[in-house]
């Protein structure tokens, strides 16, 4: 970095830092793409591996659960061992896990590989933001760099369906995972050349036991709920729920006993903080869960090819982007509570549109309704982090921001798990007593697992029997989609009431004073809280030159 005397000795980024920013955009782009490409691959994946409905949901959402669980400790680990070092380790692990996912030969193997992807992914997001905040110390340059980083994420969201659809059209389902291999290879080559190393030796050791406890609690609870959705309340599902509740209680108790807890429960003393965080989680839950089901509708009900489904998903993505980008502009023109509650009402209207979807002929209604949902939830998703950080004391801004990032990841994973479980439960229940006569016991069992399995089963049946099976299976799936849309609409209206009442008087935080912004090089507004735990992290920050 160079120093310009006219900017009060604030280091100015050089060409190397800007080239480094482009390198940091690579994993950001990939993570955004990974949020959508797998949804397109599910029909062909299901036909090949034949996962049950519970396994299918784990394939999708174990990635998000583990990112959410390890995001906080990975930020602190990066501060201790070096942020670039952690980024490169995570990039290598992500590449290996991508190959394992691509060539998985069973649902269990794919779930395990996706779990490794989630842990590796948890190293990437905090590392990229941490490095940006120390590479670009001038407030204007830092703002431009973070804006570019956000642009990479938005670009990945837009091109994900197109790239994924193209790969699926030309290759097999595993190819969508191999997209990440050359990206991570490029990161490993260019990272040591263009990215500086930063570490903070004063950061307390992250409490990995808390991270493991939180992840196990989430997985046990979600496993129990999924088993109930599939088979009803039984001993196995009941014990899983009890275990999840017990682990969650022990996790919360442990946080009260630690000097540097993984989750600072004191932040929840401010009701605005808890309200905003809860609403952010639920907003992302609704958005991710309903998009997951609609993407299945495009290919398995409407019968679109992967590339066609990718193209038809663009309006959905653009709806989210319009809402997210328009939210900050509208926040300066109306009350925040009015903006957020109004957006939630708009999203509820989009969900009402989904309740009118009755079959393959309602493509425009399904896509349009989901786009409206994304547009309505966009302001909450984009403004939620700022609202959460603004509700926290200034010295705890890093912890609040990290919890907001974790909440977003958790909401996305919960959306697929819970909304998907409701949809599949309705599908299974409605299909059980409507299966056409003439099916073997094996074919009937397969068809009841997932719609993808029903479509694959129909390919080996006589034409008339196949048509009858597809008709009742698609009708059962659409019925599940409509049911989840009704549940989502009710939840969105309730959230709108909460926003209008509990967020009354809330405002977005203003920019920090220039002096404070200039000195904030500890990176604790990323996914980790380690630098913050050290007190004055900026003074103890160590740059390691190449």
TrEMBL record:
Xref: InterPro entries: MFS, MFS_dom, MFS_trans_sf, Tet-R_TetA/multi-R_MdtG-like
Recorded topology in the membrane: Multi-pass membrane protein
UniProt subcellular location: Cell membrane
GO molecular function: transmembrane transporter activity
Keywords on record: Antibiotic resistance, Cell membrane, Membrane, Transmembrane, Transmembrane helix, Transport
This protein's name: MFS transporter
Top-level taxon of origin: Bacteria
Keyword Membrane: yes
Transmembrane intervals: 18-41, 56-74, 86-105, 111-132, 144-164, 170-195, 207-225, 237-253, 273-298, 310-331, 338-357, 363-389, 410-427, 485-503
GO cellular component: plasma membrane
SUPFAM superfamilies documented for this protein: MFS general substrate transporter
Main location: membrane
Gene3D superfamilies, alphabetized: MFS general substrate transporter like domains, Multidrug resistance protein D
Domain Major facilitator superfamily (MFS) profile: 20-507
Annotated region described as Disordered, given as residue ranges: 507-546
A biological process from GO: response to antibiotic
